[in-house]
Design goal:
- This protein has two helices and nine strands, in the order H-E-E-E-E-E-E-E-E-E-H.
- It has a five-stranded mixed sheet with strand order 3-9-8-5-6, with no helix packed on it. A four-stranded mixed sheet has the order 2-1-4-7, with no helix packed on it.
- It has helices at 2-30, 157-189, and strands at 40-48, 54-56, 69-72, 76-83, 91-94, 106-107, 118-123, 128-134, 138-149.
- By secondary structure, the protein is α+β, with helices and mostly antiparallel strands.
- Helix 1 packs antiparallel against helix 2.
- The radius of gyration is 27 Å and the shape is elongated.
- It has two domains: 1-20 and 167-191; 40-149, Cupredoxins -  blue copper proteins (Immunoglobulin-like), CATH 2.60.40.420.
- Bound molecules: copper (II) ion.
- Residues 47, 49, 89, 134, 136-137, 142 line the site of copper (II) ion (CU).
Amino acid sequence: MYRFTKTLVFVAIGLAIAAFAVSSPMAVRGAPIGETPAKAVSIPLYASFSAPAGWGWAATNITEPGPTLTVQQGDVITFHLFAHDATPHMLVIDLNNNQVQDAPDQASAQFSSATAATNFTFTASTAGTFNYFCGVHGYAAQHGSLVVQSTGGGGGGTSGGIDTTLLIGGVVIIVAIVAVVAAIVMRRKKP
Ligand SMILES: [Cu+2]
């Protein structure tokens, strides 16, 4: 009985070492150097059609074209939209870059408050440079650029790596449990 227990302990330690050896490189591979994980980004944006027309980070720096907004692919952007001239505007992300609002684009609701933010959430799933413009006053009057920098691994690359690590870890643990149970059963069968 003592020998049986000792064997079982060795088997368990061996499996634990094997599980660690397999899962550690996977965890490292899940987050390669230079890959930026997707994150939540807040961008305040002030619109105006009355002079000075355009867009700005703040009420005091509205320009036409507006500021270039740079994010990472996969970022979830929450725009906090204000109408500096207190008249209706709309933020359009021009995903097909044709300078008009149409089906591929994403757009906020109309907003007209200079003080209360209208929030609009946009997930930057595709890398590239896209126009943004006002859906009420048009591209010519109010536009700017949104730069979505590629993360190299494509959308969801990082979370895919984490998922793979969890999957491998889970499989290793299940295999280890099955192996220990099998060892117990096999030992008991012997006279
Ligand atoms: Cu406008």
